[in-house]
Amino acid sequence: MNRVGLGAAAALCLVPSMAAAERQTPSGYAVPRYITLKFGNVNARAGPGDDHKLLFVYRAKGLPLQVIAETTAWRRVCDPEGQVAWIHKRLTDGRRTVINVRKTPAPIYRSAKADATPTAYLNVRAMAELDRCEKGWCRVKVPGAKGWVPVGSLWGTSDALQCR
Fold it and tell me: In the predicted model, is pLDDT for residue 12 greater than 70?
């Protein structure tokens, strides 16, 4: 089955990784953590290896995914729709993006304050660059706009495990 693209990816920027993992991982990075798809055509498999069943194909460069397990070469990921699959690490990027999975456009605020004015809206299924998160807010960028969203208002801003 082919996965339909989920929106245009914006340019990406690096952000620091999450807190250190409680257990050692092959990569040395925390699990769970977020990554993005480096390419617009990525095979998602039932297990960590090319010999495992092909479940579907991601067709959205820049799509945010949450790593929930890993081997030396493979990452078990959870996508914004809650599906879990294995993808090869060479197909991923450590840069962060977020996606609006709500049924309405998500406001992007001028400042990180509850009474701030929205300066733009992120359309349904649209992606944005994640710059950084602090004090319950995350700074995002899209072409022509940047601003703040509350943590958890877009998929990819919460440190919580998104699926198992």
Answer: no
